[in-house]
Amino acid sequence: MGPRRKESGTKRAGAARSSSLINFRTTVNSGSVRRSSAHGDPPPRGTGKRLDLIRPDRKHSPPEVDVESQIFQEIRNRTIRTMCSHKNMPRSIWSLTPLQRKTVLQHILVNDEHRFLYCYVPKVACSNWKRVLKVLSGTLESVDANIKMDHRNDLLFLSSLKPEEIRYRLKHYFKFMFVREPMERLLSAYRNKFGEIESYQKRYGVEIIKRYRKGHAKDASVTGDDVTFAEFVRYLLDEDVERMNEHWMPVYNLCQPCAVSYDFIGSYEHLESDAEFVLQRVGAPADVHFPERQTWYKPVTTETLHYYLCSLPQRLLRELLPKYILDFSLFTYPLPNTTTEHCRH
């Protein structure tokens, strides 16, 4: 795992389509969208009720998005439309580089019965979404089944289909993805992979410590289980964003929201209501729900994120943020406040 050239995420020739916003969004302020037919019937205006008021019978109640989520959706749509209309942005997945196209196709999951595509993003509830997909395809009995998640088997990836099959599904299927505050997602990946997963400690942790910790370049006793956040960030700064591990690769590179015209971009911050909207939108059976977070799950709190970011040398943080600038800007997340005065508190 040798060092790679530095590359700012802002210089990457992303992928875009100027029309890339979001079909249901023309009525997003109304708050309600009914399931479209196989031919893509346009959604009518709705009532603007919150999701927690929806009847449990999905078959007879229209999917809705809560008001706060609607606002974020509309802002996000306008932002993506504007940024993706720039002439240096590719217009479809076919105008991406081979590496870019391979990445996005390997992260888009397919459900043919309910005619939807889901671009999974690690550390944004993707394990639970994969459970839902397996239940919908009949390979898992319940989303609450007490089993270890297999992230490859019993799942259909867009990359496994022929070009004409890919084109058809991109044109006709409902497409969605979920996003999360970039630094929160990054910290979640760091704490999970280097604090709990031995395979990541051996594969990445050992190399990071040998590369960035003084006097350890040839230390055979390094186990990789004590990588500091600053060391992890230094490693990220030397990585090409297009070749990063998927757990810390920018969401933009994973899902190419300009090249793929997503119908819905949900957020981790509104996970429960946005997930319920998607389940209703794709026509999932009423007994299929989005799984609750596991009891062992350790959330990244505002205080925790503040502590880790403020503990970084300012130079590292100034170089790190541009790597994820497209995630901040496209998905309308404010840059973190790490001024000296703010960090003092």
Secondary structure elements and their pairing?
Elements: H1 67-84, H2 98-105, E1 108-111, E2 116-119, H3 126-137, E3 156-157, H4 163-172, E4 174-179, H5 182-195, H6 198-212, H7 229-237, H8 251-255, E5 264-267, H9 271-281, H10 302-311, H11 314-320, H12 325-330, H13 340-344
Parallel strand pairs: 2-4, 4-5
Antiparallel strand pairs: 1-2, 1-3
Helix pairs in contact: 6-7, 7-11
Average pLDDT: 83
Largest sheet, described in full? 5 strands, mixed
Please give the number of β-strands: 5
Span between N and C termini? 38 Å
The count of domains is: 2
Q: What's the tally of helices?
A: 13
Low-confidence stretches: 1-56
Shape, principal axes of CA atoms: globular
Structural class: mainly alpha
Family: Belongs to the sulfotransferase 2 family.
Region (Disordered): 1-66
Main location: Golgi
Membrane topology: Single-pass type II membrane protein
Explain what you see.
The structure is a single chain. The protein is mainly alpha-helical. The protein has 2 domains: 10-181 and 249-281, no CATH class; 184-243 and 301-344, no CATH class. Helix content is 38%, strand content 6%. It has 13 helices and 5 strands. The protein has a 5-stranded mixed β-sheet with strand order 3-1-2-4-5. The longest helix has 18 residues, at 67-84. The chain is globular. Residues 1-56 have low confidence and may be disordered. Residues 1-66 are annotated as: Disordered. Residues 17-35 have a biased composition (Polar residues). Keywords: Carbohydrate metabolism, Glycoprotein, Golgi apparatus, Membrane, Signal-anchor, Transferase, Transmembrane, Transmembrane helix.
